[in-house]
Prior knowledge:
CATH superfamily of the largest domain: PGBD-like superfamily/PGBD
Number of strands: 0
Distance between the termini: 123 Å
Helix content: 55-70%
Structural class: mainly alpha
Order of helices and strands: HHHHHHH
CATH class of the largest domain: Mainly Alpha
Radius of gyration: 40 Å
Strand content: under 5%
Number of domains: 2
Amino acid sequence: CRTSAARERSGSRAAPAGARASSRTGSGAGVRRGAVTVGVCAAALVGFACALLLPGRGGEAAAQTPPPTAATPSPAATAAESADPDGAGTLREGDSGAEVTDLQQRLLRIPDVYADGPTDGRYGTVLTEAVARFQLWYGIRGDESGVYGDDTRRDLESRTASAGG
């Protein structure tokens, strides 16, 4: 009862013991909550920074890391290149030789496909466009556009065989 009397004498100056404890706990909880928030934000920033440094995940480190390439073609790579997905006799832009010359001569026999095109044996942009045009006009769908593969070859040879090809 002595504390009650002391409280009465001091008026509202002294807070009850329970009130003091709760006010301390409330401010301590706020400080702890703030510290946890700062810690979580710092961890998130560190995590994002580390993610940018991982190779293959974007950022500068991934751009600086060149993809692994073989300095010299291995026998397996050479075999894979010769096993062309469009067929062994496939011709495409960049190729040259007698087969390309034969293609150019055959395309000249088809009206308006390769009009006045060169027969120099080089598979260039003009020839690629002519092959694509031939494929489009005659509905050939088995080969890439502008690539002289098995399906395009069969169709062109059948159309030009009777014309002396």
